[in-house]
Amino acid sequence: MSYFITTPIYYVNDVPHIGHAYTTIACDILSRFSKLKGDETYFLTGTDEHGQKVEKAAFSKKKDTQDFVDEMSKNFRDLIPYLGCQIDDFIRTTEKRHKISTQFLWNKLKNNDQIYLSNYEGWYSIRDEAFYLESELTKTDKGFLAPSGAPVDWVKEESYFFKLSKWEDKLIKYYEKNPESILPQSRYNEVLSFIKSGLKDLSISRTTFNWGIKVPDAEKHVMYVWIDALCNYITALNYPNTENESFKKFWPGIHVVGKDILRFHAVYWPAFLMAADIEPPKKIFAHGWWTNEGQKISKSVGNIINPYEIIDTYGLDQIRFFLFREVPFGNDGDFSKDAIAQRVNADLSNNYGNLIQRIASFIIKNANAEVSKPNKIEEKDEKLLQKFNVTFKNYLNNMESFQIDRALKNIFEYLSEVNAYVDEQAPWALKKIDTTRMQDVLYVITLITIKCSVLLQPIIPSSINKILNIYNLSIKDLDLVNLIDFNPNTIKLNSPSPIFPRIEQ
C-alpha cells in the first residue's frame, strides 16, 4: 500500500505558530502510523510564498521579496525537527519545479476550455487571499468584513476566470458517491451545502501586483494564489509527468488542513483537478482551531502560542501527546497550562511512566534483569492479554479514521487495567511465596507494556525510543503487522530512567 499525506503549505507572511505546529504534528503522526503498518509513505509540507500579502509584508520590512521569503520559509523548515517530525519533501512555491508544474496545469485547463478572460468586480480580502459574495460579508461602521473577520476591498480589474460553475453538479455527484472523502462529517455537510447553494465562476488571476507565477502568454497577469498554492501537491509528485513512478504510486493523496481553508481544498482544488483530467484527492481532513486559556488567539491580544516556547517548557512528546489526547481531532480546543499539567501527569507520568518505572526496576533488582515466557498462563493473565487484541483492533480503526484522541483514550484505559492487574497480582508479594508465578506475572506486564509502546510510537516517538531501549528493542524491530504475534522467549532489561517527569502546577 502507498500513502501520501500533506499539510497545507504555510503562508510566509509571518512566523510559525501553534496552528502550523498542530497540523504538521498531525500529519507526522499519521505518516508514522502508516509506516508502522508497512505502507510506503510520502509526507509533504512546505511554504506558500506568492501573493499580494507577501509582497506587502516584504515591502513593509524594506526587504527584497525573494530574500524575505527565503528567510521566512527557513523559519518553517527549521521548526520541523523541533516538532519531532520526519518529512519526505519540503516544497516552496518559488521553486522552478513548481513554476513548471503550475504553468502546465494552467495550460491544461485552458486547452480543455476551462478558462476565459473577462473582468472581475467584487469583494476581495488580501489577508485571506479570497473573493467573497456580499451575502457572506458582515457590515460594520468601518466597512465590510469577511467571515474570517478580515477586511475586504472592492476590486475591479481584468481577470482570467475558471469555469467553476460547470463543475457544480459533478462535484455534488462525486461527494455524494464518496461521503468519507471529507472528514469530519460536519465539514462534509458544510462543503456539500456550499456547493449546492450554487457555484460561480472563479477569478484566477490578478493584475494589481507582480509577485507570483505569471500566466502563460499573458505576462501582466499573475496566477491567483490558490491555483498556484494548491498545485504544490502534484508538483511534489513530478507533475506534469503523470506517468512517473511517484505520481502513479502516491496520487491521489490525503490533505490535512485547517477548517478556514477547507473551501479551497474541497471545492476549488477538486474542480481544478477534474477539469485537468486528474483524479481528485482521496481524502480531506479539516481540523479545528485552538484558543489560549479560553481566549481567541490573535496578534492584537498578544497571546500567540510560540511552538518553541511550549516545547521548551513542557517537553516535546508531552506537547505532542496533549494536543491529540485532549481534544478530538477535528474539534476546536483550548490550550491551557492547567490542562497540560493534568493530562501529562495523569496519563504519561502516573499511568504509563510509573508502570514502566516500577516494573522494570523490580525486574532488574529481583529477577536478574530479565523475564521469560510464562510456565503457566492463568485465566486472569489470558483475559488481560486478549484485551490487548481488542485495544489493538480499536486502535487501528480509530487511527485509520483520524480519531487519534479515541485511539489514545483506549490505550490509556487499557493501561489503567494493567496497573490494576499489577496491584492485584502484587509481584513484590509473590517474590516471598512463589517466584515462578512472579516471573509469569512480570512477563505478562512487560510484554503488554512493549506492545502498548509500539502503538504510542507515532504520537510520542522520542520517548518510545527511550522506553524500547529499556527492553533492548528498537522500533525497527517491531511493526503493527506482526505485533499481535510478538512473544519473545526472553526479554532482557536495562535500568530505566524517568521518562515523563511530573509537571508542577
Task: Quickly describe the structure.
With 505 residues, this protein is an alpha/beta fold. Helix content is 49%, strand content 17%.
Largest sheet, in brief, is: 7 strands, parallel
Q: What gap, in angstroms, lies between the N and C termini?
A: 45 Å
Mean pLDDT: 95
Give start-end ranges of low-pLDDT stretches: none
Morphology call: elongated
SS summary, helix count: 18
Q: Total number of β-strand segments?
A: 21
Structural class: alpha/beta
Radius of gyration: 26 Å
What would you note in describing this structure?
- The protein has 505 residues and is α/β, with parallel strands linked by helices.
- It contains 18 helices and 21 strands.
- It has helices spanning 18-36, 52-60, 65-82, 96-111, 168-177, 185-196, 225-230, 232-235, 245-250, 262-275, 307-314, 316-325, 337-366, 379-400, 404-425, 427-433, 435-456, 461-470, and strands at 2-6, 10-11, 40-48, 89-92, 115-125, 130-132, 138-140, 143-145, 153-162, 182-183, 202-203, 205-206, 214-215, 218-223, 254-258, 283-287, 290-292, 295-296, 333-335, 370-372, 490-492.
- The strands form six sheets. Strands 1, 2, 3, 4, 10, 15 and 16 form a seven-stranded parallel beta sheet that branches. Strands 6-5-9-11 form a four-stranded antiparallel beta sheet, with helices on one face. A three-stranded antiparallel beta sheet has the order 12-14-13.
- α15 (404-425) packs antiparallel against α17.
- The relative contact order is 0.11.
